[in-house]
Design brief:
Elements: H1 8-39, H2 46-64, H3 71-115, E1 124-125, E2 138-140, H4 144-154, E3 160-164, E4 167-172, E5 180-187, E6 193-199
Antiparallel strand pairs: 1-2, 2-6, 3-4, 4-5, 5-6
Amino acid sequence: MDKPSNGPSDRRRVDRRVVVRLTLAGLLADGCGYLMVNMLSWMGGTVGLAAIMSFTVITGLVLCFLPAKSAASQTNVIGITMTLWMIGSVIVFVWADGVQQRLWIEDTERVAKEYGKGELPPDCQIEGTYRGSVHTPLECKGKVTDIAAWYRSRLGPEWIETGERKEVIFTRTQPNLPDQEIMIFNDFVFVEGTSVIVSPTQTNK
């Protein structure tokens, strides 16, 4: 018959089991929290999710090595660590969200310049990502017809033009690749002017 033991080694073993459970619970909380803010279009992106999950795992590893000489000490250490984890997760997620937006903007600019032979349309710039539309548009001061004429002068015959004055779409189909698209339209909801959306990018189809 095994004898119960209350030695330091047993206490460390119990601590690690608690830490594993807390870490798993933290990862679940990370996933649920991410789904909520992403679904509501507040924040999101794979960089943010990876960052908070990594932070949770690192916090769990640190907790494994923190000293706890008694049950009361364990409770205090775990309580303080959980508080710091919650605050730190918010800070890390907000920081990572900024990084994610920068990656989306750079990706959109790369694709837009590729379609425009190294340039963006005149009087067009990328201000930021609009979560509600899940796009990173080019915000333009010119009219739809003017911007469409600019693209028309630069795109090859493989691009098919559809639409009318209020919305013009250029589409190119290539084997084994997703369709490439340039959509130009009046957008008074997000950019309050003319919007150009290029795809595929990381934030749209």
